[in-house]
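Deliverable D4.2, example record:
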Amino acid sequence: MKTSALTIAACAAAISNTYAFTTTSPSLSITRAVAPQSTAFTSSSSSLNMFSGGALDIEEEEDDEKRTQMEQYAKAMGMSVEEYQLGMNARVRMETAINDLRVIGGDAANGVTVERDGNMPPRHLVVTVTDEGKAKGKEALEKLIVDALKSAADKSKVGREAAQKDMMKYISDSMKKMGMNG
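Output generated by the structure prediction step:
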């Protein structure tokens, strides 16, 4: 069965943007770490996905039940098992790139910085306010925090878009190597 690179990418992206295959509910924790002359808030989340990449190579898969399940998923999406595996590999690569992305918004000289990952909403979020930022007063500080959050979100969006382009290139290159039409 021939499936286009766009179809595989769409399926991979659709699966990555949903919690439909989540085995546990996402957890969110916020901690406050006080460093000398700064305050940082950290937010992190973790979830275990059914498609964690552990069963992506069917040749190495020993468990017939998992192999059958993978074949059923591929059939439900109108793909061959190889195309399904390619989509899942691409999704894992894209998720890793987005999770590992770190961008910083704000200005340390003004006393406010925001560090976040590429997820929307972020799983990794660190807001740092130094004494310089606190000295600016409540209204100015609020504006600096909002501006830093917006700046980091904009940079994060650029990173997500780059990860999606990389995923499309990976799928296209892999399909060429596998002899599939893309």
